[in-house]
Amino acid sequence: MYALGQQGGSTKVLADVGSIGESTLRRWLGAFARAVMTHLKPIYMPGKPFPASERDAVQQQFASRRGLQRCTLACDGSHTPFKPKNKKVAMDYRNYKGWYSILSVAFVDSYYRFFDIHVGYPGRAGDNTVLARWELMAAMRNDPELWLGPGGVVLGDSGASDNDTLFLNPYHNPGAHEPEKSWFNFCHSSSRFFVEQTFGMWKSRFRFLLGTTQGLNHALASQLIFASAVLHNYLVVHSGDKIESGVSEPEWARFFETFKAHMCPSCKRDGLAHCVHQAVYRNGAAQMRAARKKPSVKRDEDCARMWDEVRAGPHAARICAEMRERVTACRGGGSSA
User: Fold this and answer.
1) Element (H, E) at 179
2) Does residue 5 belong to any structural domain of this protein?
3) Burial of 129 per CB tally in 10 Å (0-12, 13-18, 19+)
4) d(CA 154, CA 25)
5) What is the mean pLDDT of the chain?
6) Would you say residue 2 lies in a domain?
7) Residue 273 has pLDDT above 60, yes or no
8) For residue 49, which of 189, 156, 150, 169 has the smallest C-alpha distance?
9) Cα dihedral sign, 6-11-38-192
10) Are strands 71-81 and 153-155 parallel, antiparallel or unpaired?
11) Strands, DSSP E only, in 58-209?
């Protein structure tokens, strides 16, 4: 647990702290991770459909943010710093931000618990690459009502989609003349933020996720990442979730400074939010844009219902003006969100 709570460093230093050999430490860490996955995962992250009563509670909690209905899960990816010793495969680990990592893709509920998580793809892979090969996704597609409830959906961002089958994605780049779509995107982002908060609390608990721990190979690093997600669920259940994300703490500041997105000089000069030249490291960028541009009956229905509620309320003019301002600000900052 001491090792999982440290940001970066090396297994040599950790072994010295415990007055044991480095190889012994790695062996114990592997045994610990496997024990967590064997004995705790079936209880605290079983990856099975919710009972109806629990699913209803989860959906109500999602809806309490901005009124999105039938949301059962949210999905996103997260990168853990990792640089392999083998330089021949290093570029496979270089993610779209320009640094080296292991990718984790997770489904979470609205109570800050991991429903399930897939760990191990090198950082260059995209979320959709993982989802396309994940048995959980195949099971959900085969019986969506069992896993998500009647009409249930998964909230996804631009990196996670499935062509309007299970995922509810935001609109792609709505214009100033489409305030209803901007409002939907705002509500969608507010609701999907449960997954961002879950990642934040997870990494605040287990600081090794914020830095590169030298001396871990890919297999052991992946095992520890997975085990820490199971332990996060255990702590959520038994501690009443008494932890904040703590992103203002020094460890997080060091993480953001060390692993910020690499920006080329031209993109810095133009004041862009993301370096467009780093996009070549993100697989499937064109497919993601195509998925967000594709018509979606579920999204249009929710968008129309929610906008009707806005227009019937007392703040319609103010909200419409704010949505237009958001579009202008995003385009001025170079964002396509």
Assistant:
1) helix 179-205
2) no
3) middle
4) 39
5) 85
6) no
7) no
8) 150
9) positive
10) parallel
11) 71-81, 101-108, 114-122, 153-155, 167-168
Q: CA 28, 16, 215, 5 torsion: positive or negative?
A: positive
Instruction: Count the neighbouring beta carbons within 10 Å of the beta carbon of residue 299.
Output: 22
Maximum mean pLDDT: which of 51-55, 158-162, 237-241, 291-295: 51-55
Tell me what the mean pLDDT of segment 125-144 comes to. Answer: 93
Q: Is residue 3 part of a domain?
A: no
Q: Is 154 exposed, middle or buried (0-12, 13-18, 19+ CB in 10 A)?
A: buried
Q: Does the structure show a pLDDT above 60 at 333?
A: no
Of the candidates 235, 221, 252, the one whose C-alpha atom is nearest the C-alpha of residue 103 is: 221
- Give residue 154's domain range: 11-332
Number of structural domains (the chain) is 1
Q: Can you tell me the mean pLDDT for 78-97?
A: 91
| The pLDDT value given to residue 241 | 55
* Per-residue pLDDT at 267 exceeds 70: no
Residue 109 confidence (pLDDT) = 96
